[in-house]
Write a structure and sequence with these properties.
By secondary structure, the protein is mainly α. The chain has two domains: about 140 residues, Serine Threonine Protein Phosphatase 5, Tetratricopeptide repeat; about 90 residues, no CATH class. Helices cover about 65% and strands about 0% of the residues. The chain has 13 helices and no strands. Helix 1 packs across helix 5 and helix 1 packs across helix 7. The two termini are about 35 Å apart.
Length: about 290
Amino acid sequence: MRTYDTLLSCALIALALGFSPAASFDGRPSDAAPNQSTPPAAAAPRANPYEAQRSGTQALRAGKLDQAMTSLEYAAEQGMPGAMWKLGRMYADGDGVGQNKLRAFEYFLNLTKTHAYEPPDSQESRFVASAFVALGQYYLDGIPDTAVKPDPAVAIDLFRHAASYFGDSDAQYHLGRLYLLGTGTAKDGVQAARWLRLAANKGQHSAQALLGSMLFKGQGVARQPAMGLAWLTIAKEAMGKEAKEGASSQEAWIIETYRSAFAQATADERLQAARYVEELVRARRAAK
């Protein structure tokens, strides 16, 4: 299975990098001897990993960073998906810690390695799917001055696993975009539209806009200007809501693409697009 090969290759890179205790693949600190054991009588009592994850999250909210890191690191070593994901995001974003993409990569890699087939309906599955997406993004660009080099083929495998097994809308968007661009795979407009539509139906705004642009222009698929404008309208309205709520948006291209399409559309296409918008919104509400 290609996904298994991808995870195995990730594991080999991890070993070559000499990962820290938080990223060891069996949950043990990396410097522990494989057969080392502590007699039960001498073992120090340890916190429940679930409790450690909970208390670490609470400490973060209270601004107690040192306490939070201690608890979350312990929970991560014990294989708690939420703790591994949170630490990965903290290092990826530089949130409360110095930004360290390689450190973030380690946490996300360990999470995907140990929980690749977490039941999709479990509470933890969203963390695993998000970690696959983060790894895919790292493999698209690579991490400078590390062994993690750009490898779009690995990236597309990671996105595909999260998109198909977990049904993750962000992964579906990235997968569709790569099929459209022919990055890491052959160009395939039909596959691009398929994955983008799945993500768009779940409310992924970038997918809605990219699918709308494809359909409006006839890029890789048969041209459907009214349907394309409808998807662009839905994505644009979502961006407007975010702006009103004070959220910073890096998707300005969505609004610009909508404006361009609207200006080019005929009166009949605009009218039909408005009807499609009502149908798409109604269908999504019914699916919830």
